[in-house]
């Protein structure tokens, strides 16, 4: 997703070859970036992404298929919120039962227009972006790394800083990747518990080469089975 927002060529080595990753790559390709996939060893793949940058992406010709990936849907909603285009995020029958209200509320507060079925609770999710958005200071009702990430991705295209506050600190993969791509992100523990993440707005992510580290969670199933 960040490679699609960056201008130029990004290389991603050692990516997992699951359906969720393929769905995300397909979405980035549908928005106007060139995505080249090379198989490495039957388990991982390498990607080369050439993107015109956030301002050069274009509206897709049809719905963006997230497959079964809730992460793709929620994070792409944040990225799309700051782009001056309209897109529909959809997926399989299982994805259509996953809630989206928790990302609609903060992204609307930033100035984007989002609508979903069943009174804005379930996909498909239509996102009409706006540039620039407005930076916000938002406390998540339920700690969620995906909701936090959606807000931070939208914050890249916002005027002013964006802060996400959580009662419990969630995974920080997105913050690490933003920092690697040249974005200053400040994380701090809040007195009394919880955490806050703050980043400046109106910033462009850099095109870089990166390696995806091994993920022990993928091996955990086999470790437990062996035990």
Give an account of the 3D structure.
- The protein is of the alpha/beta class and 227 residues long.
- Helices cover 31% and strands 30% of the residues.
- It contains eight helices and 14 strands.
- It has helices at 2-5, 19-30, 70-81, 101-109, 117-120, 145-155, 173-180, 216-226; strands spanning 7-16, 34-39, 44-52, 64-65, 86-90, 113-116, 122-128, 133-134, 137-139, 158-159, 162-166, 185-189, 195-199, 209-211.
- The strands form four sheets. A four-stranded mixed β-sheet has the order 2-3-1-14.
- Strand 2 (34-39) and strand 3 (44-52) form a beta hairpin.
- The longest helix is centred in the first third of the chain and has 12 residues, at 19-30.
- It is globular.
- The N and C termini lie far apart (37 Å).
- The mean pLDDT is 95.
Key descriptive features of the protein:
227 residues; alpha/beta; 4-stranded mixed beta sheet; 8 helices; 14 strands; 31% helix
Ranges with pLDDT <50 over ≥5 residues?
A: none
Order of helices and strands: HEHEEEHEHEHEEEHEEHEEEH
Strand numbers in spatial order across the main sheet: 2-3-1-14
Q: What percent of the residues sit in helical stretches (DSSP H or I)? A: 25-40%
Q: Give the integer mean of the pLDDT values.
A: 95
């Amino acid at each position: 997703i960040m490679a699609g927002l960056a201008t130029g060529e990004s290389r991603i080595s050692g990516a997992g070859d699951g359906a969720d990753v393929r769905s995300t790559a397909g979405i980035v390709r549908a928005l106007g970036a060139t995505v080249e996939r090379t198989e490495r060893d039957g388990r991982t793949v390498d990607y080369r992404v050439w993107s015109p940058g956030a301002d050069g992406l274009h509206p897709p010709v049809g719905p963006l298929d997230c497959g079964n990936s809730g992460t793709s849907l929620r994070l792409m909603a944040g990225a799309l919120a700051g782009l001056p285009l309209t897109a529909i995020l959809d997926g399989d029958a299982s994805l259509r039962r996953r809630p989206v209200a928790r990302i609609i509320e903060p992204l609307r507060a930033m100035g984007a227009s989002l609508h979903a079925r069943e009174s804005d609770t379930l996909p498909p999710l239509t996102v009409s972006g706006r540039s620039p958005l407005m930076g916000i200071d938002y406390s998540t009702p339920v700690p969620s790394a995906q909701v936090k990430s959606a807000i931070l991705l939208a914050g890249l295209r916002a005027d002013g800083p964006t802060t996400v506050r959580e009662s419990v600190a969630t995974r920080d993969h997105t913050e690490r990747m933003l920092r690697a791509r040249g974005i200053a992100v400040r994380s701090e523990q809040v007195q009394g518990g919880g955490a806050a993440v703050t980043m400046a707005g109106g910033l462009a992510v850099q095109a870089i080469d990166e390696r995806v580290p091994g993920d022990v969670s993928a091996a955990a199933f086999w470790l437990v089975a062996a035990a």
